[in-house]
């Protein structure tokens, strides 16, 4: 009986470690919770709190699904950070809106270049901007700034 007992808890602990390790190779944040369930069963079996295979499978199933259901969303945000939600976030995450820029080149057909914080940016504008003038950022699409000759607060 002692041999089966030792093999049983060792199996669950090894399975738990393998499932946790598999998350590094196939990320999806699902196998980790089943790994935690297997580690729990291995620990409870080692402590002698559960011993029959049906009890082990039941505890494994319930604890894994419960952990998956309760914790997955929280762990996803923690592991992946806030970059997952960029599309839903405010357009001014970069702090660009309302910034004053210097026009570097005359705008031709609504396209030109501006300088912001010492860097040259591609820009678009419906205003006829000339080199040396000031403009203000009204919007951005990736690395292209949309600028205006008037300050955004004046447009309200």
From TrEMBL:
Protein's cellular compartments: Membrane
Record InterPro entries: Membrane_assoc_protease, NA-bd_OB-fold, NfeD-like_C
Top-level taxon of the source organism: Bacteria
Keyword field contains Membrane: yes
GO CC annotation terms, alphabetical: plasma membrane
Ranges that cross the membrane: 12-41, 53-71
Keywords attached to this entry: Membrane, Transmembrane, Transmembrane helix
Primary residence: membrane
Membrane topology: Multi-pass membrane protein
Descriptive protein name: NfeD-like C-terminal domain-containing protein
């Amino acid at each position: 009986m002692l041999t089966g007992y030792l093999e049983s808890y060792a199996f669950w602990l090894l399975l738990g470690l393998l499932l946790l390790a598999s998350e590094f190779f196939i990320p999806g944040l699902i196998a980790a919770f089943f790994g935690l369930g297997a580690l729990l069963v291995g620990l409870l079996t080692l402590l002698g709190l559960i011993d029959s295979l049906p009890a082990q499978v039941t505890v494994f199933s319930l604890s894994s699904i419960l952990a998956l259901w309760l914790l997955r969303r929280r762990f996803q945000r923690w592991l992946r950070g806030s970059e997952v939600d960029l599309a839903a976030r405010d357009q001014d995450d970069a702090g660009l809106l309302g910034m004053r820029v210097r026009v570097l080149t005359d705008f031709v057909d609504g396209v030109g270049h501006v300088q912001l914080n010492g860097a040259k940016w591609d820009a678009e504008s419906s205003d006829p901007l000339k080199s040396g003038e000031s403009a203000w950022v009204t919007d951005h699409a990736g690395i292209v700034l949309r600028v205006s000759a008037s300050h955004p607060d004046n447009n309200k």
